[in-house]
Request: fold
Amino acid sequence: MRAALGLAGLLIVLLIGCLIYSSQIRRNSDGKPLAQQTDFVAVRGHLLSLGQAERLYYATNGRYANLGELQRSNDMNSLPDGGRSGYQYTAEVEGEAHFRITANPIDPSRTDLRPLSIDETMQISQ
Reply:
C-alpha cells in the first residue's frame, strides 16, 4: 500500500512538472508565444526576398517596380501569403531610384503585430 501511494505521488509530481514545462516551452524569453515570433521572422524573410527581387528588377530595367510588376517579371515566384503571417504587403516607388516595401498587419486590433518596412538600403525598420 505504501509503495502504491509513493508511486501515485511521484506520478502527480511528474504530471505537474510536465504541465509547467509545456506551458513555458511555448513562450520565448519575452513571454510572447513562439508562433508570434515565428510569424515575425517569416515576415522579415519575406521583406528581404521582396527587397532582393526589387534589386534584380532594378538591375534589369534601371528602375524599381511595384509588386504587380515584380510578380509579372518573374523576379519573384509569388507574393508572400499575407493571411498566413497576418500581414499585407505594399510597395511604394519614389522616382526611379527609391522604393519602400511595407508589411502591415491585416488585423488592426492585434497590437502585438508591428508594421515593418524595407527600402533600397535593404534595412528592415519598424
User: Anything to note?
Assistant: The chain has one domain: 35-125. Strands lie at 87-94, 98-105, 116-119, 124-125. The mean pLDDT is 77. The longest helix spans residues 34-61.
